[in-house]
Amino acid sequence: MNEMILPPEIAGGGGFTFEDAPVAIYLGALLGEESAPGLKGRIVTRVSVQQAAHDEPLDDLIVDGIAPDESLARLSLQIKRELTVSAAATNSDFREIVTGTWKTLLKSDFREDIDRVGFVTGTLADASRRALEDVCEWARDRLTLETFLARFQTGGSDVSKRGVLTTFRQILADYPDGAVPLNPRRN
After folding, report:
1. For residues 44 and 60, what is the distance between their CA atoms, to the nearest angstrom?
2. Mean pLDDT over residues 138-154, rounded?
3. How many secondary structure helices (H) and strands (E) does the chain include?
4. Residue 154 confidence (pLDDT) above 70
5. Most buried of 50, 103, 143, 156, CB within 10 angstroms?
């Protein structure tokens, strides 16, 4: 008799517990032909998990949606039970999210201002969450790189938001050859 040996995180039941919850939300939206977080105004048409083998840098959860005008959008997510916003070399989870996000933005089929990237976590310190949300919102709303960076000048943001920007810069400084293009769509 052939027995399949399973990794302890699968056999023990603890490995998928947290990831299953956000996946279930999007599967529910798919089955109900509804919208879901991150796909405002779009009906979920496809849900995929663990897509690294299919060239998805943010591979834990990929969700496609369609708008009433039939335009498509993709939401690419990483899922972590807990997360710390820092550039520490030992913080592989946050580093993976930042570099995976950058690689997703660089994909030729990424549609700027349509597709979305992000992460789902169960635990993130409130102050870090607020600062990270604000910085990400500023990035989405920016007209130019200069107007985005102007928000970080003295008096334009608090130390926590400037810390988030510094964290992203430190992580992306490790990008191959240190060559992080300022606008990924133009390089």
Report:
1. 16
2. 78
3. 6, 4
4. no
5. 103
